[in-house]
Design brief:
By secondary structure, this protein is of the alpha/beta class. 40% of the residues lie in helices and 25% in strands.
Length: 286
């Protein structure tokens, strides 16, 4: 089994037809079918159930599909790494970002970096912190822009300054309008909308202060948290820098006074692994 065969297999799986896969690969159908047969013979399993017009992955095929995607991504990453090294500060930089990093990442420092290194092309992978850590470990991205808390044991980290969590409150709630901040206890019995990433942190902080939070909605994107609050459905609990990332015309916010409800954005990369000159410059500017 080699990279070429994996590419053939992956393309067939994506297209659902050998004919369409052959067309996408710019090759004839018979040699593609032969390569698939050789791969199945080598593995000793059927990778596809053949139908009259389509092919469907078997259970074994689904396992290989997942691994083939990872291997092909890693192979592409290695080629890019070598090309970037030969080009110096030109080429492609693959980074991963969490949804709540936009206000911190896309600031004047990023504009200055682009001006100084205009030949660099960015390839962005988006996901939660845990997904980005997985992509880093697999070598698919060089740098992850993540948010605390996370396990930093295997990573080098560069942090921006800490920021508080805020309560983004719909205007019709008319709640403590004269105050710029609130205590965690003022969230008791309030209908909360939270980003699942912070569920444990918020829950533990509330319990330590003597009450269980009333969570109306939890989701996987800080922007969704704000959108639901902006619709008047509850109070959003998000990092302060996130407030400008989604519709907030119906919201005002108050900082939550709590030593625990503090979070930081960090640039992280794998310890003791080669990173490109491009990535080094990016980290320096972060």
């Amino acid at each position: 089994m080699d990279i070429r065969q994996l590419k053939y297999f992956y393309t067939i799986a994506e297209e659902g037809q050998i004919t369409l896969a052959a067309k996408k690969l710019n090759m004839a159908q018979p040699p593609l079918s032969q390569q698939l047969k050789l791969l199945e013979d080598e593995l000793g399993v059927k990778l596809f159930e053949r139908g009259a017009r389509q092919v469907k992955l078997t259970s074994e095929g689904k396992i290989l599909m997942n691994r083939a995607h990872q291997i092909l991504e890693l192979s592409n990453s290695v080629v890019k790494e070598i090309n970037d090294f030969s080009k110096g500060l030109k080429g492609t930089l693959s980074i991963g970002t969490v949804s709540s990093s936009g206000a911190v990442l896309l600031n004047e420092r990023m504009s200055e970096f682009h001006k100084d290194h205009s030949d660099i092309i960015f390839e962005i992978y988006e996901g939660n912190t845990f997904k980005l850590i997985d992509l880093l470990n697999k070598g698919i991205i060089e740098v992850g822009i993540v948010r605390t808390p996370f396990n930093a044991l295997n990573f080098e980290c560069k942090y921006v300054k800490p920021e508080p969590m805020i309560a983004a409150v719909p205007k019709e709630f008319n709640w403590n309008s004269e105050k710029a901040d609130i205590s965690i206890n003022e969230l008791k019995n309030k209908q909360l909308i939270i980003y699942r990433r912070f569920e444990q942190l918020i829950y533990e902080t509330c319990i330590e202060n003597g009450f269980e939070p009333l969570v109306f909605c939890k989701n996987d994107d800080a922007r969704t948290t704000l959108l639901w609050a902006n619709a008047g459905l509850g109070i959003a609990i998000v990092p302060k820098s996130v407030f400008e990332l989604a519709a907030n015309n119906n919201l005002s916010y108050k900082e939550i006074k709590s030593e625990k409800l503090i979070t930081k954005i960090a640039a992280i990369w794998v310890k003791d692994r080669y990173i490109s000159p491009i990535a080094i410059k990016f980290i320096e500017s972060f």
